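testing teh design pipeline on a random one, pls ignore if ur not involved
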């Protein structure tokens, strides 16, 4: 009887313990911390680039402004914006005011100065062509030495850049020579207002286009009296464009001639390719929208792709590549955060967040290069919050398994 009672007591105790364990298990399941829902991505290898982004403007490569060489009454200009003009075509006419002796001497001095500028410009063209020839020879020599493994590829790239820079300098010198000739023509036109033997000035001075192209703008349309030097017509070749973007001087030092660029937000579906021709050697002060004075530098780019319907003065967003890699281990920039003096990410291992220190190389607005600390395929947490810590249970948002990126 006592044995039976003892068995019953132990049986009741076992049932009570089992019930207590069941209650504790249910309580833990009900009140246990829920996994923290996070966004995830996967570390992977692929191409990556770092760019300097800045709004730019499309402008005609060479533009010519026809100014009034003398004071007088301008005849109404019949040209309209977009009209085609030929070299030597008359674009404006002026009835000059006769020159007095003092003005006559000033006109002669301007002609002499313009002739000196033409001689200087032609000398610069000859010098630039000599430099270009030397740069081409140096590039060919470096390519030959590189094929024989005597020099590194970097020397070939430097020689190629020097050749591109020299070619751009020749183009600029030739453009300056053309402009100098136009200035000389304008200065000589002033002499037409000198009275002849009959004491009267010529009735009309015809202003001719120095180049063939299109009328970009008619600055003075109606007949009126104009002063010497007044801009009348702007002429350019709309098939030759360049893109100019002013960047911070701290970014300009990273940009090299020959660097590739992408033109976006111009109105088309796909970005357009461009290449940096030159980084101007001087900076200027510009006040930002916040009222801060900034030192900025103009970066001039040549389009590689046709610009379509883009015209002079159109706005684009230029993304200039300052570094690029073809096989880079990268994670989203939103997954990387500061941890002391270094960088870290949260990885996910069996549903648990683990803090992992990493070494970061290049960064852009979207990705960060990981040089040490992660392996390809590692799942990382994007946008880590203050609630996330090492050892916290997590769950990928909207899915049972992390989605690769």
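output:
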């Amino acid at each position: 009887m006592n044995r039976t009672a003892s068995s019953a007591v132990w049986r009741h105790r076992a049932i009570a313990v089992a019930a207590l364990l069941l209650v504790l298990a249910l309580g833990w399941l009900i009140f246990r911390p829920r996994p923290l829902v996070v966004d995830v991505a996967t570390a992977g290898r692929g191409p990556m680039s770092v760019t300097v982004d800045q709004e730019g403007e499309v402008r005609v490569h060479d533009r010519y402004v026809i100014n009034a060489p003398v004071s007088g009454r301008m005849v109404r200009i019949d040209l309209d914006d977009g009209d085609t003009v030929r070299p030597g075509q008359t674009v404006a006419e002026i009835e000059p005011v006769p020159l007095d002796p003092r003005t006559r001497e000033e006109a002669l001095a301007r002609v002499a100065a313009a002739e000196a500028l033409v001689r200087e410009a032609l000398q610069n063209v000859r010098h630039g062509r000599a430099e270009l020839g030397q740069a081409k020879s140096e590039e060919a020599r470096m390519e030959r030495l590189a094929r024989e493994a005597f020099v590194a590829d970097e020397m070939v790239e430097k020689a190629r850049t020097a050749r591109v820079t020299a070619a751009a300098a020749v183009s600029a010198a030739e453009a300056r020579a053309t402009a100098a000739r136009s200035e000389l023509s304008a200065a000589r036109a002033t002499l037409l207002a000198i009275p002849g033997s009959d004491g009267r000035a010529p009735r009309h001075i015809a202003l001719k286009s120095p180049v063939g192209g299109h009328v970009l703008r008619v600055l003075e349309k109606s007949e009126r009296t104009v002063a010497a030097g007044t801009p009348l017509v702007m002429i350019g070749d709309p098939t030759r464009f360049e893109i100019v973007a002013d960047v911070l001087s701290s970014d300009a030092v990273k940009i090299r001639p020959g660097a590739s660029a992408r033109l976006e937000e111009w109105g088309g579906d796909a970005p357009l390719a461009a290449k940096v021709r030159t980084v101007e050697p001087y900076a200027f002060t510009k006040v930002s929208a916040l009222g801060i004075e900034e030192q900025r530098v103009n970066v001039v780019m040549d389009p590689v792709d046709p610009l379509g319907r883009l015209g002079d003065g159109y706005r684009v967003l230029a993304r200039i590549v300052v570094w690029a890699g073809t096989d880079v281990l990268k994670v989203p920039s939103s997954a990387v955060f500061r941890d002391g003096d270094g960088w870290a990410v949260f990885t996910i291992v069996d549903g648990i967040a683990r803090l992992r220190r990493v070494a970061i190389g290049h960064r852009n607005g979207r990705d960060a290069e990981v040089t040490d600390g992660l392996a390809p395929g590692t799942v990382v947490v994007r946008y880590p919050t203050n609630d996330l810590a090492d050892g916290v249970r997590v769950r990928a948002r909207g899915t049972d398994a992390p989605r690769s990126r």
